[in-house]
Design brief:
Radius of gyration of chain A: 14 Å
Oligomer: heterodimer
Helix content of chain A: under 10%
Order of helices and strands of chain A: EEEEEEEEEEE
Largest interface: A-B, 23 and 26 residues
Number of strands of chain A: 11
Mean pLDDT of chain A: 93
Shape of chain B: globular
Mean pLDDT of chain B: 92
Number of strands of chain B: 11
Low-confidence stretches of chain B: none
Strand content of chain A: over 45%
Largest sheet of chain B: 7 strands, mixed
Low-confidence stretches of chain A: none
Largest sheet of chain A: 6 strands, mixed
Distance between the termini of chain B: 34 Å
Radius of gyration of chain B: 13 Å
Helix content of chain B: under 10%
Number of helices of chain A: 0
Structural class of chain B: mainly beta
Shape of chain A: globular
Chain lengths: 112, 115
Amino acid sequence: RKEVEQDPGPFNVPEGATVAFNCTYSNSASQSFFWYRQDCRKEPKLLMSVYSSGNEDGRFTAQLNRASQYISLLIRDSKLSDSATYLCVVNGWASGTYKYIFGTGTRLKVLA
Amino acid sequence: DTAVSQTPKYLVTQMGNDKSIKCEQNLGHDTMYWYKQDSKKFLKIMFSYNNKELIINETVPNRFSPKSPDKAHLNLHINSLELGDSAVYFCASSQKGGGTYNEQFFGPGTRLTVL
């Protein structure tokens, strides 16, 4: 089982649609959780951290379910500019150190 | 002001050559990383340094040798380049290595092509 798993997509959605991505992680000792966004041929950039109580940033809502070990990202009112790859990232203690583990990413295409 | 910078941005070289990639961060962070992103877009940790000390060394061939002259710099030297080394290499930094919510900041990447 991969340490962090995501559906690679692509998710093709029309502008204005709501889309949700899920991510599962295997290390129950994971402590911090993030969604990063990566545009084509660019570096990953932090979209938002994911807190235990869930958090929202404008059109983006992130949820964490520690019991089931999954993280979700909801995007409302999709814009063309939301087209990108969304990377789930988990940080936790493993093999004697803290590590950031990246999922393979979920590709989103928002269509006009 | 570039937070994490890498040079060169593009590197095209022949098999068997030796090359280096340099990384610098001006954020005052303690921890720096090298990641490899292959053609399938999977971002995999290679090395991590905390205040010039190596703390993560994943199963990477010995041909790859990181060096951190100070906590703001982390370089990557690759000996005897192979076709399979072709990828995008990202440098990143964070305040700490983990345990709390530390954002990682990435450099623009170095696109390495081995012919």
